[in-house]
Predict the 3D structure of the following.
Amino acid sequence: MPIAVDIDVMLAKRKMSVGELAERVGITPANLAVLKNGRAKAVRFTTLAALCEVLECQPGDLLRWEADDAAEA
C-alpha cells in the first residue's frame, strides 16, 4: 500500500506503549494495531486528531506516501 504508517516511530520517540496510546486516544488496542500495522482501509479524522494530540505531532509524522513499485512496473 502506498500509505505508510509511522505510529511505531512516534511511540518510540515518546516512550509510550501501544496500550497506553490506545487508552489515551479512546480506541481498542486491537484497532490501534490494525492502524499501526498498515492494515486499516480508513482512519477517521477524529481518531487522527486524537493520535496527534496525545503524541504531540502532526498528521504527516504518522502517515506518509510511498510510491508503489508494482504500479510503476
The chain has a mean pLDDT of 92. The radius of gyration is 13 Å.
